TrEMBL record:
UniProt-listed InterPro entries: F-box-like_dom_sf (IPR036047), F-box_dom (IPR001810)
Pfam families in UniProt: F-box-like
Organism annotation: Gigaspora margarita
Classification lineage: Eukaryota, Fungi, Fungi incertae sedis, Mucoromycota, Glomeromycotina
Protein's UniProt name: F-box domain-containing protein
Domain F-box span(s) in chain numbering: 3-47
Length: 153
């Protein structure tokens, strides 16, 4: 049996990704074929993860990457942190760009998913800012490949 070099797999899968971003699910399915494909595909899927911050599973995985210090900021706001083991990969190390807008979308979706009720505008602003600080700290700590960082504030 002849196997292709990793570079060939990477080119095949990344070209598939770059031509049509709607194939995110297809690539994810391909990552389940075997460990070799998974190791090649995960960096491609997570390169521009911010585009998918509306996906609750992705946000949950992102939050499981927070270290103890980053989680400490969120402890006063009960039920925000997910339960579960640390992810298999350090997915956030594959991210090459993220923006303030992506983070805001992700935080809004996560708080809505957790049914986190916020009565006052001041409290809403505080919980969003605390989440954003935790997420940014984690992304900067783990983001070995970040090339583009867009923060408006």
């Amino acid at each position: 049996m002849i196997t292709l070099p990793n570079e060939c797999y990477y080119q095949i899968f990344s070209n598939h990704w770059y031509y049509d971003h709607n194939y995110h699910r297809d690539l994810f399915s391909c990552s389940l074929v075997n460990r070799h494909w998974c190791k090649v595909i995960m960096p491609i899927l997570w390169t521009v993860a911010g585009q998918h911050f509306n996906n609750i599973k992705l946000i949950r995985t992102l939050l499981l990457t927070l270290n103890a210090e980053e989680q400490t900021l969120l402890i006063p706001f009960k039920n925000i942190l997910p339960n579960g083991p640390k992810p298999l990969f350090e997915y956030t190390s594959y991210i090459t760009m993220f923006s303030d807008h992506d983070l805001n979308v992700g935080i809004k979706n996560w708080l809505h998913y957790k049914r986190y009720e916020i009565e006052y505008d001041d409290e809403r602003c505080k919980i969003k800012n605390v989440n954003k600080c935790s997420w940014i700290a984690m992304l900067l700590r783990t983001g070995k490949n970040i090339k583009y960082l867009i923060l408006d504030e």
